[in-house]
Design brief:
There is one protein chain. With 456 residues, the protein is an alpha/beta fold. Helices cover 33% and strands 17% of the residues. It is built from 14 helices and 16 strands. α4 runs parallel beside α14 and α12 packs antiparallel against α13. The relative contact order is 0.20.
Length: 456
């Protein structure tokens, strides 16, 4: 019988060579450089660490918009520099497992977290029987890996929630938010709210927003009468609330970072898109509504890597077991919903800096699998300057001095703009990275991560 695994590697290399050489990049040297990177990236084997970076709502349009504005049409973002790039499909399902063609973040995140499709709004539970499905983070913990989750959203939001919680509905964020999850309450024998579950899982590093959820009072179970933050402290967490206290956090005890009452304020701002468009505008790259001392996504990611690495370097630990870390740039999506192009671009640029950091870490630790992708597509489209879209639009003056018009027309002006059902980019480097080549499905990312870390 032929070695099918070897055959797959050879096929993957052939696909990578075609993709890498065929990509239009300025200068032949860049194209050959990509091909050389791809040649070295085609490797099997296992990873000590995995860094999964999720740009929420970061479809190809959102990437192109950030690239054009910040580094120019012929430039390249850090996320453009991965040696291996593919695409994956993102649909959800209904309760009968029939396709629901436009996913939300709960169903899409459940896809890569568990390897299973589910209904929109559900957190790591089956679509039909509403039963909990083991997540990649839970499997990593069970196998001795350190674990972490970093986000610019509330830590109870869908993308971080899918790793460390199981809920019938994504709205069941804190003890006071359980109306749609009656069987998940502690009184009913369930695991409690998303905030309670995240803390109970003793994830080594949890950094993001959502302090108001964790400040809710628990009404049932052994921690009744305490807030979720107090539950975390009782379970050994160091609770930090700003850049200084985050910097001071020590390895050896889990860390819960709560940097905003709800979502972490965005990096950039300016005028949102409007009916009939806006005057050409530049983005304001220092948001006055962002409190001083709010850590950036790259600062949070840097500290998460430091803490996770320190834990796994402890005496007597299996040196082959590293960590699993998920990093989310959450407000790309949220600013897309709000038809705010500068907010959206600024969050994509901030996310791209976290991608750069992850790739730099992997350069020093080549047994690290780094994957970057999105959970779903979104609404923004670059259109001709002379276009007169029926919805909301804005004209931006880019860093290279050109004008660019962006359109938001997936819903009636005044309503939240919508996700789209398109496939989205996935790119990777490191052990098992070849698995992202071609067109795959979101659920196959779970298999890639599980295989790389040898999880059972």
């Amino acid at each position: 019988m032929p070695d099918l695994r070897l055959s797959r590697r050879h096929l993957a290399w052939g696909a990578a060579a075609v993709l890498a050489v065929g990509v239009a990049v300025p200068g032949a040297a860049s194209a050959f450089g990509q091909a050389d990177q791809a040649r070295h990236a085609i490797k099997d084997g296992s990873a000590r660490n995995v860094i999964l970076l999720i740009g929420d709502g970061m479809g190809d349009s959102e990437i192109t918009l950030a690239r054009n504005y910040s580094v120019g049409a012929a430039g390249r973002l850090n996320m453009d520099r991965f040696p291996l790039t593919g695409a994956y499909t993102t649909y959800a399902v209904d309760k009968e497992n029939r396709p629901d063609y436009v996913t939300d973040s709960a169903a899409s995140g459940t896809g890569w977290a568990t390897g299973r499709k589910t209904v929109n709004g559900r957190i790591s539970k089956t679509p039909d029987t509403d039963r909990a499905i083991p997540t990649i983070l839970e499997l990593a913990q069970r196998n001795g890996y350190a674990t972490g989750s970093v986000t610019t959203a509330e830590l109870t939001d869908a993308t971080p929630a899918v790793l460390a919680a199981h809920a019938t509905d994504r709205s069941c964020a804190g003890p006071a938010d359980m109306a749609k999850c009656p069987t998940d309450t502690i009184g009913a024998g369930g695991p409690g709210s998303i905030a309670e579950q995240s803390v109970a899982h003793k994830v080594d590093v949890l950094l993001g927003g959502g302090k108001a959820r964790f400040d809710q009072t628990i009404t049932q179970g052994p921690f009744a009468g305490k807030t979720v933050t107090q539950q975390a402290q009782a379970q050994g967490y160091q609770v930090v609330t700003d850049a200084d206290s985050l910097k001071a956090a020590k390895a050896g005890k889990p860390v819960l970072g709560l940097f905003a009452p709800v979502n972490v304020p965005v990096e950039w701002t300016s005028k949102a898109a409007a009916v009939g468009g806006t005057e050409p505008q530049r983005c304001v790259t220092a948001n006055p509504a962002r409190p001083a001392g709010t850590p950036s996504l790259v600062q949070s990611t840097t500290k998460a890597l430091e803490l996770l690495e320190a834990k796994q370097s402890g005496r007597g630990h299996d040196r082959d077991k590293g960590f699993f870390l998920q990093v989310e740039g959450a407000s790309i999506d949220k600013q897309d919903h709000a038809a705010d192009p500068c907010g959206q671009i600024g969050e994509t640029v901030a996310f791209d800096q976290a991608v750069k950091l992850a790739r730099e870490y992997a350069a020093k630790h080549p047994d690290t699998l780094v994957v970057t992708t999105a959970d779903h597509g979104h609404t923004s489209q670059i259109v001709p300057l002379e276009a007169t879209p029926p919805g909301l639009s804005s004209t931006l003056v880019t860093n290279e001095g050109g004008q660019l018009k962006v359109n938001y027309s997936t819903n009636t002006p005044g309503k939240s703009q919508e996700h789209t059902g398109t496939e989205v980019r996935i790119a990777a480097q490191g052990p098992q990275a070849f698995r992202v080549l071609g067109v795959t499905d979101q659920t196959e990312l779970f298999t890639t991560l599980r295989t790389a870390l040898r999880l059972r």
